[in-house]
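The protein record reproduced below.
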Amino acid sequence: MRYSLLLSSLALLSALAIPAAAHADTFDFSANGSSGAFSGSGTLTAAAQGSGAYLISDITGTGVTGLIAPGGFNGNDNLLFPAATPTLDAHGFSFTDVNGPDHFDVNIFNNGSGYFAHLNDEDNFSQTVPVSFSLASAATPTSPAPAATPEPSTFILLGTGILGLAGATRRKFISQS
């Protein structure tokens, strides 16, 4: 009886432990600096973190060579806030970019009065320029995302637990009569 109770408990715990499928959203961005000091555009891939924040996990675009990890350049946190009007915080997001022979790190952020790009090239020349920045959801899905599908072993474990629970219940009723 204890064995079947243990099996049923394990089956219940395994059913509750099925993880939800991770979902990432994409956002198109473009930034243009004054006097042609900087121009960039691309797509950000980000996952919801709660409290309306999204953590950027990937970036693609013309000249973009990679996303810089949070805290890796100019205090970036790689968070965006896609509320009614998508926005960035004062830490922004950072990436590496190539423009002709020049390689540089870029941090785009919002200081509350507007958007800026902090640039640092391979010669350690550093500059912060105001930019016009836009961020929008890249595409709305035409069909809902597929639900997570449990593995067959999960079903086997769940079925074994249900059989164990049924056996324990049957024994209990037989011993009481």
Q: What stands out?
A: The longest strand covers residues 39-50. The chain has two domains: 2-20+148-176, 24-137. Confidence is low (pLDDT under 50) at residues 140-145. The chain is about 25% helix and 40% strand.
